[in-house]
Amino acid sequence: MRSRAAVLALQLAKRYGLDECIMPTPANGMGYLVDLPSQPFDDTRVDALKRWTWWSLFSTSEINAETIRMAEIPPGYMTRGPQAGQIVQRPDWDRVAGHYLHSPEVDDRDFELLVQLWSTGRMIRRLAEDPAGNDLWELPSDERI
Fold this sequence. Notes:
The protein is mainly alpha-helical. The protein has helices at 2-15, 45-61, 83-88, 96-101, 108-127, and strands spanning 22-24, 32-34. The radius of gyration is 15 Å and the shape is globular.
């Protein structure tokens, strides 16, 4: 399941030039992490879609859902410190539907990849013993996942 999630995340990221941000984690978590992009997003419509995609991938990876998970991050992950906020600019989540999910600028294939990624994440969580999913971040993790 984790390898499937990593492949789906990478496929979606590639469509927006964000493939450098995907770090596979086959032994824990949701199967991947999302690192910062090399360049900040700007205020163009294209970068707005990239920003929404980055945040969708990042939040779906669940690394930020619980503080306990941060102990499992690999060295060098998100090491840009105070610059991080400037690079990714947290979106206004109240606008996710109108600006991203319902946007005709988001290709149907991209939307389907995101839905498949969400479905895969749900399957991964069903296999976890802890309903919160925190056991997915402990190493070694169950090989069924």
